[in-house]
Amino-acid permease BAT1 homolog
Amino acid sequence: MVSGVNGNDGAGVDSGHARLHELGYKQELKRDLSVLSNFAFSFSIISVLTGITTLYNTGLKYGGPIVMTYGWFVAAFFTMSVGLSMAEICSSFPTSGGLYYWSARLSGKKWAPFASWMTGWFNIVGQWAVTTSVDFSLAQLIQVIILLSTGGNNGGGYLASKYVVIAFHGGILLVHAILNSLPISWLSFFGQLAAAWNLLGVFVLMILIPTVATKKASAEFVFTHFNTDNDAGIHSKVYIFVLGLLMSQYTLTGYDASAHMTEETKNADMNGPKGIISAIGISIIVGWGYLLGITFAVTNIPELLNLDNDAGGYAIAEVFYQVFKSRYGNGVGGIICLGIIAVAIFFCGMSSVTSNSRMAYAFSRDGAMPLSAQWHKVNKNEVPINAVWLSVFISFCMALTSLGSLVAFQAMVSIATIGLYIAYALPIFFRVTLARRTFVPGPFNLGRYGVLVGWIAVLWVATITVMFSLPVQYPVTKDTLNYTPVAVGGLLILTVSSWFISARHWFKGPITNLST
């Protein structure tokens, strides 16, 4: 599927640098990342320890073992289709703007400003929602770790209030902002450390948990049990399977980070695509292993989902805690295992802020954001410092909705999956339609299969947009309504209306900066 070589002519000229110049941009960020570092950022944001742990309750409730075990590969196949298509486009246009820049170049002169405006705002808001979701899930995990460490839900343990949780969230974001203010060489080190931690953490937990467990699920349970026992009023197995896919699809997202890091990656026209594909591929393999390892320790689904258990209904935390408690008389080992996951989620949030800031830097460089002149400034370390702190501030503000209503917060976070995937699909759609005959591939390309894979990707995104907008509980009330279509629809209305009211008069799409 890959033709050509990495684009380096062997004379010491970086192909990514040269291609960036051809696209009309001067090099402002320090190009110091290897393909390993580029991969590490996307792999750390995908972070199977983060996504699976956070939404394991959803997987158990809607379908259980069979949906998680086989649904993982359904989501994986289509995610790889999206990733391959993005990698092909990334090879041709290796810029920090990524998706919105691709949309502009692939939609033609007439549609370029509108296409890049829509893609850019869905991308950046989706990324902010990802950071919000990741760091808030870490704050919630810390809440559970403290609860279990002080005796558990049934032993007088301390359950932090929603105000303490939001304070945790703010503190985590602050640390992430400080780390992302460091030179890219430091971020490269932390990115590789994060990738190694995620990889080793998965292998440790997938082996340790079922080994320590005194009671194990049978292979028949793990590979064939379909859980229809939910309190959601949903009994159709097809419907349940669809809802259960959310865990897998939520986990397998965020790999556009490799595209946003291309202006800091050596030979980015080849290494950027490699980062995208390898991050998805390795995540698929280790993620399935982690799912199997944990699910073999599941023996009582209703008990794990019970809000009155020691972990307050946090399924994976309850699994870890009870596994060690049943063998050793206490759950300390389980709490330590949760600490391994907490560090992985921390790194995930750190890498997410890195990706956010590069997107904000590029989008403001093209004048698309309010106060754009401020957000694309780089400091003496060649870091878009203002964009870093902007991203953290907005992510904190998005999390404040949790103080009013968790329903409202979930609606906000839903943009992290659907909104981001819409941004992924738009440039792919333009590539297989308006640019089908004019697209000039880079050194990484899919050859004659590019259009086919692209259509599979676009249709899958359209499918999950509908699937994940369906009601998740009946009867539907204001407290049980799935607000995903409200949140995504609201973003769509805001983006389109701002275009017609104002932006169409001044936003011309990506602009070059070679003369500035």
The two ends are 39 Å apart (CA to CA). DSSP finds 21 helices and no strands in the chain. Confidence is low (pLDDT under 50) at residues 1-11.
